[in-house]
């Protein structure tokens, strides 16, 4: 499979424009990624970004609109443990308390409203002090499994290299490096690599695409 | 025939590296070998010089005495590795745990990112010592992991060790401030190492004094071993004067962000605009920054990314060919980040040429002590470009005049600053130490 991929990949790569795949599992890496896309996209470099925009990505920066963005966020949220936590601790009580606040008249309604606000604060604290400390160390492996089942969607046969932007994406990158011996998997966003290409595209970023393509 | 004393020298940056500290390490090893020591050097791995610093010069290897045994010691590249394929199974699967483990070792084992090299050097040193015992261990830093290895080797083999501070470890020499917060383990380690080292070497008296104040219990074991110039790379032949060619003002060395390059460029511009030396050039020989991958960024920071009339970036010159750069220069520009703790090795080479030297650095730089008695030294009143321009013009006049007596005096003065002259007392001290130990 690897030999086939590499033979076909070389021919296609020669013909096609340069293409890179970036993997971002933590939102903190997005400003660096966007700066990179803004630099290389006008030079004709095609960038595909794989994001895991699951829990914790609500206030994340949008990925530059010139990049194709594939998302495994929904898959991440549907993992049994994550789904159960979000449903049992956050969504279900929130929905119940919201309805009670709307439907119950007078004192009981106001009490339900107060309970909803307390619940909102408490879930914030629980996320910080319970959910993330437990889930954070498991997340890279969980995402490696999810992303590993969807490698075809990344079109690695046409990719020059894969850039792993954050530590959380390292297990996935390491898996790719082992699965595809000819593929370059690096932690470095190297702008200089494309400096030989002339700027041919617009330098203004189009509006960011959201929602991203779910895979 | 008496057995030759055996020296184990821990020098991460050693040829083929072309890092700035290599020349002191090379001279130390060569000098000890010439004086009859059996020298073994443990150095950093080629991959580090090739891929991480990009600072390799194979011509340097040929200048190492063939009697010296040089061994490449592997290291872990945790801080530098960007190729995910090269991550081990542990880091590839559990990157956060691997990082925590690395940080824990920094806090609890030894606080240096080159720690992996230090551990391997310790292992290799022990292996070689078991085969044939060493008499003395000398470690040069940075990286300071070599100090930790020398300390541990000394404990395990009961041999004396010496630490050679090419740079300060816990002092920021450019800002005259502590490098680490008070609770940082580097302080504990430095005290521990200096407490049991047979001697510590410093490149100037200001640095020795700073360490003596910080660690008074070790003050009587601190020595100054100046840097110096290398006779094999700098010719001390009198320069041939050429009245007709336009003057060349040259900076030879590595450009970094701490040097006042703005003052130099403005001073040069003012000088040429005033027709003080029509057609004078300003040439930069050497690398821009110590790391190849930061060169473009630094070039832009220094304002050298655009063409400046009369200014030429001539690029790096291999050390063995550096004499050609000096021969093509009429006035040498001594530019440094400056501080009372900074001497730089370049000042010795500059003096060896017997050519006018113009200083471009803050007042109070340690090199001033050496330059003060050099007859062709031109010091501007301040870093104000007007003052720099005036000093450059005066140095240019001196180069044009090319008084042979003054030039001879200058070269004679420089003769006392060869690397070997600087190392002589230390080598003698080491010999005595080993002889005393052997009884």
UniProtKB/TrEMBL annotation, chain A:
It comes from the Bacteria. Residues 196-215 are annotated as: Disordered. Residues 206-215 have a biased composition (Basic and acidic residues). This is Uncharacterized protein. It comes from Glycomyces artemisiae.
From TrEMBL, chain B:
PANTHER family: BLL3647 PROTEIN, GLYCOSYLTRANSFERASE. Residues 24-228 form the Glycosyltransferase subfamily 4-like N-terminal domain. GO terms for molecular function: glycosyltransferase activity. This is Glycosyltransferase involved in cell wall biosynthesis. The keyword Glycosyltransferase applies. Gene3D superfamilies: Glycogen Phosphorylase B. Pfam families: Glyco_trans_1_4, Glyco_trans_4_4. InterPro entries: Glyco_trans_4-like_N (IPR028098). The keyword Iron-sulfur does not apply. Keywords: Glycosyltransferase, Transferase.
């Amino acid at each position: 499979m690897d030999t086939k991929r590499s033979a076909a990949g070389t021919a296609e790569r020669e013909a096609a424009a340069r293409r890179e795949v970036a993997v971002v599992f933590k939102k903190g890496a997005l400003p660096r990624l966007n700066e990179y896309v803004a630099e290389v996209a006008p030079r004709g470099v095609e960038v595909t970004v794989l994001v895991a925009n699951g829990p914790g990505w609500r206030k994340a920066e949008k990925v530059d609109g010139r990049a194709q963005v594939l998302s495994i966020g929904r898959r991440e949220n549907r993992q049994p443990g994550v789904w159960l936590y979000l449903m049992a601790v956050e969504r279900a009580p929130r929905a119940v308390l919201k309805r009670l606040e709307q439907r119950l008249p007078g004192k009981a309604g106001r009490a339900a409203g107060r309970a909803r606000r307390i619940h909102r604060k408490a879930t914030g604290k629980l996320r910080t002090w319970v959910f993330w400390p437990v889930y954070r160390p498991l997340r890279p492996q969980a995402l490696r499994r999810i992303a590993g089942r969807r490698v075809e969607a990344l079109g690695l046969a046409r990719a020059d290299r894969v850039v792993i932007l954050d530590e959380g994406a390292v297990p996935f990158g390491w898996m790719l490096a082992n699965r595809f011996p000819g593929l370059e998997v690096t932690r470095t966003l190297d702008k200089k690599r494309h400096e030989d290409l002339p700027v041919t595209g617009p330098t203004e970023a189009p509006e960011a695409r959201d929602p991203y393509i779910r895979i | 025939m008496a057995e030759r004393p055996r020296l184990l020298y821990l020098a991460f940056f050693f040829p083929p590296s072309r890092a700035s500290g290599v020349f002191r390490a090379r001279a130390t090893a060569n000098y000890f070998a010439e004086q009859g020591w059996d020298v073994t050097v443990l150095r950093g791995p080629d991959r580090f010089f090739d891929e991480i610093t990009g600072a390799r010069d194979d011509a340097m290897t040929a200048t190492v005495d063939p009697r010296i045994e040089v061994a490449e010691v592997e290291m872990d590249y945790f801080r530098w590795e960007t190729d995910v394929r090269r991550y081990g199974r542990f880091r590839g699967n559990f990157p956060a745990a691997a990082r925590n483990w690395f940080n824990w070792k920094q806090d609890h084992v030894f606080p240096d990112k080159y720690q992996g090299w230090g551990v391997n050097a310790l292992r290799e040193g022990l292996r070689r010592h078991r085969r044939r015992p060493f008499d003395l261990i000398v470690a040069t830093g940075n990286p300071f992991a070599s100090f930790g290895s020398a300390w541990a080797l000394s404990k395990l083999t009961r041999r004396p060790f010496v630490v050679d501070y090419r740079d300060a470890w816990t002092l920021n020499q450019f800002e005259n401030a502590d490098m680490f917060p008070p609770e940082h383990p580097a302080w504990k380690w430095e005290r521990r190492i200096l407490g049991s080292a047979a001697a510590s070497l410093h490149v100037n008296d200001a640095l020795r004094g700073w360490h003596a104040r910080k660690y008074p219990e070790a003050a009587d074991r601190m020595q100054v071993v100046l840097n110096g110039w290398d006779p094999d790379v700098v010719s001390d032949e009198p320069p041939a004067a050429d009245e007709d060619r336009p003057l060349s003002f040259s900076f030879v060395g590595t450009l970094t962000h701490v040097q006042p390059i703005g003052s130099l460029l403005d001073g040069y511009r003012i000088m040429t605009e005033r027709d003080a030396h029509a057609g004078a050039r300003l040439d930069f020989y050497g690398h821009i920054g110590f790391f190849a991958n930061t060169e473009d960024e630094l070039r832009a920071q220094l304002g050298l990314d655009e063409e400046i009339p009369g200014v030429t970036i001539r690029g790096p010159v291999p050390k063995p060919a550096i004499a050609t750069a000096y021969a093509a220069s009429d006035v040498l520009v001594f530019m440094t980040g400056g501080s009372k703790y900074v001497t730089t090795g370049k000042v010795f080479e500059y003096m060896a040429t017997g050519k006018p030297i113009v200083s471009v650095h803050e007042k109070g730089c340690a090199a001033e002590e050496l330059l003060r008695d050099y007859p062709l030294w031109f010091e501007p009143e301040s870093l104000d470009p007007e003052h720099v321009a005036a000093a450059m013009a005066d140095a240019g006049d001196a180069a044009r005049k090319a008084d042979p007596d003054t030039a001879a005096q200058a070269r004679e003065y420089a003769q006392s600053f060869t690397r070997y002259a600087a190392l002589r007392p230390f080598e003698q001290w080491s010999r005595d130490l080993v002889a005393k130990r052997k009884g």
